[in-house]
Amino acid sequence: MSRFLDPYYFVNSLLLLVYGGLRAYFVYFTPEGSEHSRFHSLHDLAAWEKQLMMLAMAFIAYKGLRMRSWDDYAQQMFFIGKLAVALSAIMVDMRLGVLYALAAVACWVAFPQPIIQMSTGRGESSISILTPLSMRDFVLRGEDDWVVFFYTENHVNSIATAPAFVEVAQKYASESLSFGVMDACLFQSFSRELKLRPNSWSNQLPAVVRYVRGKEHSRLPMPAAGDELGLRMNYFTQKDIVQKLALNEAPAPSKGTKKQR
Hints:
The structure is a single chain. The protein is α/β, with parallel strands linked by helices and about 260 residues long. It has 2 domains: about 5-110, no CATH class; about 125-245, Glutaredoxin (3-Layer(aba) Sandwich). It contains 8 helices and 5 strands. A 5-stranded mixed β-sheet has the order 1-3-2-4-5, covered by helices on one side. The protein is elongated, with a radius of gyration of 23 Å. It starts with 6 loop residues before the first helix and ends in a 17-residue tail after the last helix. The model is unreliable at about 225-230 and about 255-260 (pLDDT under 50).
């Protein structure tokens, strides 16, 4: 089943459609001059809608210029849409604004955005699921080149960037360049050994690291100067992964036969 059929997308779409009911409430149930509403006429509401629409279109265009994935784009659109509905609800009736905000928070807690399935765990998959043991055996002590995606499932940036990593893996995986994923929060001690802070609030997740014959070659985000654990902003696209990790460069030939994972 497509992740876009997950309840997250259905519920958030309903939260946006609430605006139709909100507008009907103002038109049919809010008397002119009501102390609960900042709008005094339908003309005032229409002017407010026009301003919101212009801001929303500008935001959509800006996000479209540097979109990490459709998951990222959907999350951003839902956010700006719910914010617009919440502000409109406050303007129509403060009480409705409070109720809408509570409903939005409850849905955010109950229906988190799903992350793409990056690997089936089967032999034909272009991405391997890694554990500390397989990471040491195949990546850190092996002869092949690897690109590893460190993430955690409930992290907004991990969810947004994972589809971009999957597309890169499908395009660049070969006999001499392998791709793997590791949930950093499941293996926190090991992640710290790799100089990653494994928590959902860390600006180090997600991280994409390229290993060449067991040695770290490059990573995204890049380490900040003077702090081996501090990392710069973790907002990067498919193009960034390819360019910064030099995936267009031919990997060094592996020694021996490729190991079975």
